[in-house]
Batch of 4 targets.
Target 1
Amino acid sequence: MAAISVAVIALFTALALTSPTPTAQASTGSVSAGIDENRVKELAQLDTSALLDGQVCNGSLIEHRAITSGSTTLGWLDVYWDGTNNCAETVSSSTTWGTLKEMGVSIQSCLTSDAQDGVCNGSIADEDDDWGDFRYYAGPASVNGTIYCIGASGWIEWGGTTRSVDIGWSHCG
C-alpha cells in the first residue's frame, strides 16, 4: 500500500509541476484555474493499471535512494521488506515521469554468514531484475530475505547517459 501511495504522490507531483499557476483576471476580478485541457487529457490516459493491479512492492520502505544527473533527480531506487521478501523498484521522478526511457532494477541476496563489510564472500543465493523501456517504473523485483543480506541497484537512461544508484550488501535478515 505504501508503494501505491508513493506512485500516486509522484503522479500528483508531476501534475503540479507541469500545471500552470492560477492567474487573476484584472478586468473581472475572477481567478482562472489555468487548466491545460491537453494536460488533463494526457493524465487521463496514463497507464496506472499496474498500480491498481498490485504490480508494485509491498511492505515497509527500507531504502529510498535518489538517481541523479547533476542536481536533477531522475528517479529513485526504493527497497521494501515485508517480513519475508525484499522487493525493489526504480520509480521515475516528476522530471522523467511519463517519458519512455530505458530503466531497470536489480536485487540479489547473499547468505548473511557470507556477507561481511558490504561484500558477498559467497555465491549469490537469489536474484531478480526488471528492465526495459518504461514510462513510470521498473519492477517489482524481489528475493527472499529472511536469512540473507541484500544488494540492489536502479538505473535510468536519460539524455544518452545511464545514471544509477546502488546499495551494498545490507539489511541482513
Target 2
Amino acid sequence: MESILKRAAETKEPIQVIYEAKDGTLSQRIVTVYQFNEKHVLVWCHYRNAVRSLKKSNILSVGWKQEYYNEETRARMI
C-alpha cells in the first residue's frame, strides 16, 4: 500500500481505494493523493468532489484505477 500511495502522490494519477468509515460502512472511491503521513492520507475524492482526510488504518485496499494503469505507467514504476 505504501508504495502505491507514494507513487500516486508523485504522479497525481487517481487510484481506487476501499475504505471503512467510522460507522463501519465500506465505500469504494477513486481518489487523487495529495500527501500522506504515518496516520492519514489527504486526497481529492472524485466521488464527493471534495478534499478528504482518510485514516490509513481504515484503508482496506488500494490499487491503480484501471484506465490509468497501463504498460507505460507500469514501465515508469519499475
Target 3
Amino acid sequence: MTGATVHRWSAALPWTPVGQAARVAAYRESVAAAAPRVILAGDYLGLPFTDSVVNTGQWAAAQALRRLAASRTG
C-alpha cells in the first residue's frame, strides 16, 4: 500500500434495511427447524451495535447447546 484516505463522520448512525427483522426471524425459525451444522451470529443478524453481536452470539450458543443435548439423549 502506498497511501490511504481516512474519512471521519462526526455525526453518523448505522442503518438497518427495512425488513431486516423479518429476515432475521425467518433465519432463526429455519435454524430451529433444520438443525444446520453452522449457526451464524453477528451484528448483521440484529442491529449494527456491539450488544447485538453479544445477543446473537448467545442465541447461537444456546442453539448449539440445545442441539448437543438432544443428540446425547436421543
Target 4
Amino acid sequence: MFLRPPLHKWVSLFRKHENYLRVQWGSNTAIGDITEAAGWKILNCSPDVLTQDIRLVCMGETSMCQHLFSGHGAVDTIVRLSEDCGKGPFARVQKSWIPADQSMPADIAARIVRRDGSQPQVQALTLDTNFTAVDSSKLDKLNFLLGFLSSEPCD
C-alpha cells in the first residue's frame, strides 16, 4: 500500500509542477470547441480575464462550425479556449448573438472568402466561468478532471 504524504509536503517535493483541467467526458452538445482546430478564428480575446465578450468567425464552411449551435444552442455550452484566450482552458457561453460590427482584419478576411464570394458572419459570445449557472435541464452530465503533474524531484 502506498501512503501519500500530505499535499503541502507532496508539493514541496518538486520544483516544477503543472495544474490542469480537462473535460473528461460528457454530452457532445454540452461541450464545444472554439479553437482554430475546430474551425474558429477568435478576433478579440483577452488572456487575462475570466468573463468577457469575444467576436469570432468560422474559417471553413458553415457546417464545420455548426457544432457550437447544435442541440440546445450555444448558450450554456462549455467551450474549449485557445491558449491565448481567457485565464483558463474552458469557459461557459453565457450569451450568443450576431454583433453589429461585422468587420475583421484584412488578412483573416482574405483567407475565408467562400466559394460564392461571400464573407462568413461574425459571431459574438459572452464567456464566463460560472459553470454552476448552466441550465442542467438542457444538458446531460458533464465531468471534469482536475489534476496536478510534477517532475524534477528536489535533491
